[in-house]
């Protein structure tokens, strides 16, 4: 495997390992899950990310990795395989992304895996690291992508939602956030490219640097999501919209999307710098100390820290 | 008359004519209305598009073509003539666009005229087909343009509203939509250029590809219109705003608008590709079949299809 | 002192002076306040613009120039000095801007000082006139800037808010406006560059050319401010957000902001043309007559004109 900027990072990792002896952040290993059986993706109820073909034209991708729907290198690889299927299929017109996990759409990126598991991943077809590669390819799919957010969508959960075409949130039960600056590092999945173009520079800076939780209703007012809907109506609304689009002519969909993208797609060139800023920043002692403090309080385990992440990032004392 | 891409389209039209023998879409002829008496525009109460000079500085353009305010090649030519008057006048500062037709601002482009009536039109001064030419010149007027939307503004009705400077809608009685993708073709009047820059990529994709009806209140929340106002207040509000602007100094208006446009005018280069995508897509069998089915159900005649167009586009069975 | 485009303006000033014999607009002199004691800025309760270091990371800039918080050349110089301190400080992470003056955040630019006091100012480090220079440098600070708006923020008050990173307004007591076109001239502090990128072209044209007052609630709906908050909660909210950001890691803040700015910062090249358009337009007889009429009714003095500026600009009779 060709290491991604391996030389530089190996050095930095040595530093961060020394700083984090009791609760190593980005330093526990769980390689077993890396060998994903791609054959089983469509069928298995037990898949961490489940692909359901509701019809030839309407597919569903369901995050099913309790208790928090954490996304790490293994899940990124699963998502890339699903993305390849969507890219390769000539008939799919619309894909809905949702979650089976109560309280969580996607909590955030895996902060307990060794960082080299992330940095060592081979670049994707865009030439970028698989995380920005995934985001860009998700945005550029011919199929229309709709994200249905119930529960927390923080960090890479928010970033996946932003890279998709449309976002709908539960008024009562959605929480969106880019918590990263609150934990001492720069978000890596491209929200600095996507958010300002959706909500304007002022609200983007508040979301990204205030780094606090946004409920569905406020996310709608800001334009962070298309619309917030009463929780009891969310599934029916998203399904009706997807069914509707699946019934339309593919040529008309694809050509229309192409021209919308010409007017408004964030330039790909802004994505890799965001990932690089994440990797650089997360290895700094300041970030390591903040993440360590959050992990000690309960980050990446079910409980109050994950539920009220916006409050906990502000409690750090230098 | 110099045909616009005539060679290619003649071939495609032959194909579409064969497919649509019972209800020819874009294939009935009504050339009488093409000879517009431009002299009468300002005065005649019976003009399909009525130009009223409320004062030297404040003009009004009223769509008055019942029962649906359909815009076809003849009406485009009328609009172009009105546009030329606005362009040529040194004193007009503000132009309000509204409708006298109950229930309709502008239903949509004429889908029953022969397509060659549209494709055969001579390019406008921008070098583009008269429809994108009209939109670009509308946006670039020195005069400020305000659209008052009561009733349905679909397709080219929505596109005219987007190309104007400001849009206000009746909370109770406005319906905006880009229904085209639901009818199997790409919108031709530039909404892929205008909408993403007003409402962001996510909401633009929902409007354009979901292709459903938006009421005034939701249109405001999305930024599709400046503001929705109670129906009883709409006329007074728009008139007060226009009167206000008409009282201001023209130099200040023009120079301010110039700098706003430098920051935010959609590039003209995005407009002709949208029109070309419309012409290509509308001739495909998939679009011809969908439009034919809609026409058979009542499209372009008063009744439920035009009132609830968003519902009917989703009812098509392949 | 090196004059800023002095030759041309001297001629134009001669013209305007002749037109405004009874109430000279931009023509009274008060040079005393030009010599600002920069040493005292931080400490003095009596400073017109007060800099308070609430902590090493959290600073506050308070406009304290009753009765209207007018900003003229002298106050621009004070602001530039404060800006230089923020730029030079390695530790400050967040700066809140607010006002002590009841009813006014900042009324507008000083319209009673001689215009040459403004045009004669030496260019700032960006090479631009100090007003656009100030706006650009405010936007490009490494520190996060938050504006808390209670009372009227018109003209340069609105422009400072737009050039800052985030804006929060009192629901009950904030009034935002770009009144300039209503007074016959083009706004000079860059809102044509900032507003369309925050609120879209349609709403920007309404704000800038309608030139009317926007209350906090409507400003939020338009995206003119991040959020409107009940007056009783505004200070606590802004303080909590600033305290929160001040507790975060500076590297993460700065690198995140850099990438947001890459995606959404208005280009500096649009700022000087706005200032030039202001200077040119404000010297025209039409503007001089309108400003003179407003001054005669009470502009730049406490009273109804300043409170309801949007109404008074529309009352001018040519």
TrEMBL record, chains A, B, C:
Q: What is this protein called?
A: Enoyl-CoA hydratase/isomerase family protein
Q: Which UniProt keywords apply?
A: Plasmid, Signal
> Signal peptide span per the entry?
1-27
Q: Does the keyword Signal apply?
A: yes
What is the top-level taxon of the source organism?
Bacteria
One Pfam family this sequence matches: ECH_1
Task: Give a yes or no for keyword Signal in this entry.
Answer: yes
